[in-house]
Amino acid sequence: MAPLSLIVDHSPLFPAHWSLFVAHPSCPEIGKRVHVEGSVYAGFTHAVQRRYKLGSVGKNFSLLELGELTGGKGGEEEEEEALVKHIHANADVDADAAEYGEEVKPIDRLEKVAIGIVAPGGSLNHVNEDGTQAPARRGQMKNCQDWIIDVVAELVRRDLLPAPANEVVQNAPKN
């Protein structure tokens, strides 16, 4: 079992950036951060930082407890796969041992579930290269918060996280 938290990086002007965080058992301020990066215009890509230090992006953040990750229900293959794998907090690795976009290779069940949820694509209408407006479509503004809500719902559905986690993300600060 491992406690899963929601990091809310607050912003007065833009939606807060949300990410999932699992603290290293021996060093609670360092751990695994799973999120998506990008913009509603260009779209988002998956990101996994396996040696993330809390507060390294900024000091204006909240940490909300989502619950304990547990074994859940799954087939034999899932039962043998680690729920969460950590790089040792003092390991000699490059920066935060991060992987982004298509480079992300899941090393545990948490990462596999998260990467299995499609990152939001570009939500805004684009202008064509010749300067004309692309065909209008109803914009669906999806961002990192929507992706986290979907990931948490999937973790709950698989019994890897308790159901109240859904309520925590629904009520988490949006800015």
Categorize the overall geometry. globular
The H/E string reads EEEEEHEHHH
**For the CA atoms, what is the radius of gyration?**
17 Å
- Return residue spans where pLDDT drops below 50 for at least 5 consecutive residues: none
What proportion of the residues form beta strands (DSSP E)?
A: 25-35%
User: How many independent structural domains?
Assistant: 1
Distance between the termini: 30 Å
Alpha-beta classification: alpha+beta
Q: pLDDT average, as an integer?
A: 85
Count of β-strands: 6
Largest sheet: 6 strands, antiparallel
Spatial arrangement of strands, main beta sheet: 5-1-2-3-4-6
The number of distinct helices, counting runs of at least 4 residues, comes to 4
Helix share, percent: 10-25%
